[in-house]
Q: What sequence folds into this?
C-alpha cells in the first residue's frame, strides 16, 4: 500500500490519493459523527478547517474543558459518542477532565487529541508540547487507542465508537500523532479501509430467570419503590419505562438527571417525599441508578432500620453488590430489561398496596404545601426560593426548554423546586458534582436538540466556564443564563478575621455578570426582584437571543455546601475541645 507525504508523490498522481486529514473526516461522517467540539492549534487546525469545509459542524470553544463537557453531554443526549478535538499536551490535559467525567457518568464520548512526534516523545527529547498522552489517558477512560498509519484510521475510529457506546458507555481517547494527518495513500484503498460500524451498541437481553426473580421480589413488596437513574434516561426507552412504572403502581424516585422521564407532577412521583420512601420502602428497584454516594451507598440513617431488598437493573454486571447485597440482579440494557419486565408481567399485576401509596401521597402533598408559599415570596433582595419559584413556573409553561444547573445551593434547591416534565430536559453536575459543566452543556444541548436552554448557575459555578458566553454569542445560540449572584461560594458573607484578604469563599460584591454578555453582543439584564427575573427570562426564551441575567440573591441566604454540608470532614480534635 503506497504511503508517504504528498511531497514524495508525483504531482499527477494526487487525483487518486487521499490523506490522513480526509480519511478521518470520511470515517467520522460515515458513522454519523457530524459535530465536533474543538479548540484549534497545532497539529489539528487544518483538520478543523477541512472538516468544516466537508460539512462537519466544528464548534470552537475558548477552553478545551468546556468543549469536552459539551461533547460528553452530546453523547448523553444522542447515544452517539460526542467528539471533542484538542491540541497536544496542555489542550489534551484540559480535555481530559471532561473525558474522565464522561466515563464516570457513563456518557459516550471520544476525545481526539493531536500529539507530538512519537520518536521524540518516547525518547523524551523535548518536542513541542511533548507528552505521552496515551499512557496518561488510559487510566482515566474506558479505552484509549493510538492510530499511527493512515490506513488504520477507519479501524481506529470504529473501535473508538464501539468502545464508547457499547455495554456501559464511557469516554474513549484517540491519539492522533501530527504525522498521521499528512500521510498519503491510494484513495480507493483508503475508501475500503473505512468501517461503518454495524450495531454499535448491541442490545443486551436479560436472562428470563433474572427477570422472573426480580418481578417475584417486586411483587412480594408491601412498600415498593422504584429509583430511576440517568442510565434509564440515557436508554431512550421512555414509553416502556413509563408503562412499566405505571403498571407497578409503585412510587418512583427520579435521580436528578432522570427527572422528567415521567413528569415530576406524576401521581406516583415520590420526589417530594424522598426521605420517607428511602426510609420506609421494603423493596427497592433501581433502574439505571447506582448505589453510590448520591444514594448514601444504600445504607445508614437515610435508609432507616427496616430491612430492605434491592433489585438492580443495570448493563454492567460488576455494579451488582457494589455497596449492599442485591437479591435480584438484572443485567442488560435498560430498554431490553424494561420491555422484558412488561412482557413477563402479563395482564395480571395487582396495584401497589394502597396503604403505602396513600402514605407516600400524603407526605408528598404535605411537603409540597409547605414549600408553596416560600416559592411565591417577593423578597428583595431575592432569596433562592423566590427566584426559583419564578423559574419553576417558566419551565412548567415551556417544558421543552432544557435546564442546565450547577452550583451548591443553586443546584440543590433548583433540583428540588423546578419540576421537569419531559425526558432528558435536566442536565447537571452528574456523579462527581463537578463545577464547570454549565456553558459546555448549554451549547451542546441546544446544538444537539434545537431546544432553547435555561442555565441556572451559581456565581461560582458559572465562573468555571464563563468565558464561553462569547461562544454562545458567536454561534447566536438560544441560551438564557441566570446567575444566582450571592457574592460567593455558598454565601457571600464570610469574613477573614486574620488579615485584609477577602475570605476564601467570597467574590467581588455586587458584581455585574450581565455586562459580560453585553461585551459580546448578547443581552444582559440585572434582575433584583422576582418580577424582573420573570420578565427577563420570558423575553430571552421568546427572542432566542443569547441572554445573561444577573439575579441578585441575598448573600446570607445560602448554606455551607448546599445540601451536602455533612460531607465536610470534621476534626476529632475540634470535637474534643468543644
Ligand atoms: C471542579 C470543582 N471545583 C470545586 C468544587 C467545589 N464546589 C462545590 S460547589 C462550589 C461552588 C458553589 O458556589 P455557587 O456556585 O456560587 O453556588 P451557591 O451555593 O453560592 O448558590 C464549589 C467551588 C467542585 N464541586 N467542582
Ligand atoms: Mg454563589
A:
Amino acid at each position: 500500500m503506497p504511503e508517504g507525504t504528498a511531497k514524495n508523490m508525483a504531482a499527477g498522481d494526487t487525483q487518486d490519493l487521499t490523506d490522513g486529514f480526509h480519511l478521518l473526516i470520511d470515517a467520522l461522517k460515515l458513522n454519523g459523527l457530524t459535530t465536533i467540539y474543538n479548540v484549534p492549534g497545532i497539529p489539528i487546525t487544518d483538520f478543523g478547517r477541512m472538516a468544516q469545509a466537508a460539512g462537519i459542524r466544528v464548534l470552537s470553544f475558548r477552553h478545551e474543558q468546556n468543549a469536552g463537557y459539551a461533547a460528553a453531554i452530546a453523547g448523553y443526549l444522542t447515544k452517539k459518542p460526542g467528539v471533542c478535538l484538542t491540541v497536544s499536551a496542555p489542550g489534551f490535559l484540559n480535555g481530559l477532565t471532561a473525558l474522565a467525567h464522561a466515563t464516570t457518568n457513563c456518557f459516550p464520548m471520544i476525545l481526539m487529541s493531536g500529539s507530538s512526534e512519537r520518536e521524540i516523545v518516547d525518547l523524551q527529547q523535548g518536542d513541542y508540547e511533548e507528552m505521552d498522552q496515551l499512557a496518561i489517558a488510559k487510566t482515566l477512560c474506558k479505552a484509549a487507542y493510538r492510530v499511527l498509519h493512515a490506513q488504520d484510521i477507519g479501524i481506529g475510529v470504529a473501535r473508538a465508537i464501539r468502545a464508547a457506546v457499547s455495554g456501559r458507555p464511557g469516554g474513549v481517547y484517540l491519539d492522533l500523532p501530527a504525522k498521521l494527518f499528512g500521510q498519503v495513500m491510494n484513495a480507493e484503498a483508503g475508501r475500503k479501509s473505512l468501517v461503518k460500524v454495524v450495531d454499535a451498541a448491541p442490545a443486551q437481553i436479560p436472562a428470563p430467570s433474572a427477570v422472573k426473580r426480580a418481578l417475584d421480589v417486586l411483587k412480594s413488596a408491601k412498600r415498593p419503590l422504584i429509583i430511576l437513574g440517568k442510565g434509564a434516561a440515557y436508554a431512550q426507552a421512555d414509553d416502556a419505562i413509563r408503562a412499566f412504572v405505571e403498571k407497578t403502581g409503585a412510587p418512583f424516585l427520579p435521580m436528578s438527571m432522570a427527572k422528567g422521564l415521567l413528569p415530576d407532577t406524576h401521581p406516583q412521583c415520590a420526589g417530594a417525599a424522598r426521605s420517607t420512601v428511602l426510609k420506609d420502602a421494603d423493596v427497592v428497584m433501581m433502574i439505571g441508578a447506582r448505589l453510590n454516594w448520591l444514594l448514601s451507598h444504600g445504607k445508614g440513617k437515610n435508609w432507616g432500620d427496616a430491612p430492605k431488598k434491592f433489585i438492580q437493573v443495570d448493563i454492567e454486571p460488576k455494579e451488582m453488590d457494589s455497596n449492599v447485597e442485591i437479591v435480584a440482579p438484572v443485567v442488560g440494557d435498560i430498554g431490553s430489561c424494561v420491555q422484558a419486565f412488561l412482557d413477563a408481567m402479563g395482564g395480571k399485576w395487582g396495584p401497589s398496596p394502597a396503604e403505602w401509596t396513600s402514605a407516600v401521597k400524603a407526605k408528598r402533598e404535605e411537603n409540597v404545601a409547605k414549600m408553596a408559599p416560600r416559592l411565591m415570596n417577593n423578597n428583595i433582595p431575592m432569596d433562592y426560593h423566590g427566584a426559583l419559584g419564578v423559574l419553576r413556573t417558566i419551565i412548567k409553561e415551556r417544558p421543552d426548554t432544557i435546564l442546565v444547573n450547577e452550583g451548591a445551593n443553586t443546584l440543590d434547591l433548583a433540583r428540588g423546586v423546578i419540576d421537569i416534565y419531559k425526558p432528558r430536559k435536566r442536565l447537571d453536575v452528574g456523579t462527581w458534582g463537578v463545577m464547570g459543566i454549565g456553558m459546555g452543556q448549554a451549547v451542546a444541548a441546544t446544538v444537539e436538540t434545537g431546544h432553547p436552554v435555561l442555565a441556572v448557575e451559581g456565581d461560582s459555578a458559572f465562573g468555571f466556564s464563563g468565558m464561553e458566553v462569547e461562544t454562545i454569542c458567536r454561534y447566536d445560540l438560544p441560551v438564557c443564563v441566570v446567575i444566582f449572584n450571592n457574592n460567593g461560594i455558598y454565601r457571600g458573607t464570610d469574613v477573614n478575621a486574620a488579615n485584609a484578604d477577602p475570605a476564601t469563599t467570597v467574590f467581588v460584591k455586587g458584581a455585574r455578570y450581565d455586562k459580560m454578555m453585553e461585551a459580546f453582543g448578547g443581552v444582559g439584564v440585572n434582575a433584583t426582584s422576582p418580577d424582573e427575573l420573570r420578565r427577563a427570562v420570558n423575553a430571552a426564551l421568546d427572542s432566542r437571543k443569547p441572554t445573561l441575567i444577573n439575579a441578585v440573591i441575598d448573600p446570607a441566604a445560602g448554606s455551607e455546601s448546599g445540601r451536602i454540608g455533612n460531607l465536610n470532614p470534621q476534626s476529632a480534635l475540634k470535637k474534643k475541645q468543644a
